[in-house]
Amino acid sequence: MTTRLFLVIMLLIIFSAPPVLAQEEKAFKINTAKSHWTFLGGYGVTHPGFGATRTRVENVDLILQYGRFLSEEAGKSWYRGRHEILIEVPFSAVYHPKSAIMTGMNFLACWNFTASERIVPYIFGGGGFVYTNLDIHGLGSEFNGNYQGGFGLRYLLKERTAIEFNYRLHHISNANTADPNEPLNSSKILFGISFYQ
Question: What angle do CA 124, 126, 128 make, to 5 degrees?
């Protein structure tokens, strides 16, 4: 009797588990996520002649990003979305005109457009601080500030992951705390992967 009861219970567990797991996978949407970790990598280059930028600087970027959603879904139609704060720890390896590093911390505000369940465009802006040992005369200081703004696109995959692309216009300067104060105005193109919770 106990063997039959055990077999019946085991069969119920085996045959009921796959639909439950499938429902959990289907239930995930960007509008139910609480946070995410994202790893981004890409390329950045300054634009001599844009503002007071005079020096061409090229670098490879790696960024660790934590995103925390601050609101439930709001709005209607195509602009429906969610507020998010992004905290980033960027690392840049400069290879032109000289070898150097740049690192720091960024705090960005973000709006995710959630009208589509799989394709999520977003816009963001904010700033932070930067340390660099890049030895160019115009920069004037090793410790600088930055601000940036841009847009991106997330494509949601199964199992709470997304692939991501973003473009940002990035500004670094010492905010006139040192002389000279030649800014670095650059474009950054980044690709990555996000893991949602």
Answer: 140
Number of domains present in the structure of the chain:
1
Domain that holds residue 63: 31-196
Hey, which bits of the chain come out as E strands? 35-46, 58-69, 81-96, 100-113, 119-132, 143-156, 161-173, 184-196
Position 69: which residue type?
F
Spell 28-57 as b/e; 16+ CB within 10 A means b: bebeebeebebebebebebeeeeeebebeb
**Short-list 93, 91, 28, CA closest to 64:** 91
**What digits encode the pLDDT tens for the residues 44-86?**
999 999 999 999 999 999 999 999 999 998 888 888 999 999 9
What CATH number is associated with residue 57?
2.40.160.20
- Which tokens is 163 given? 């692939």
Distance between CA atoms of 167 and 140, rounded to whole angstroms? 27
**126 found inside a domain:** yes
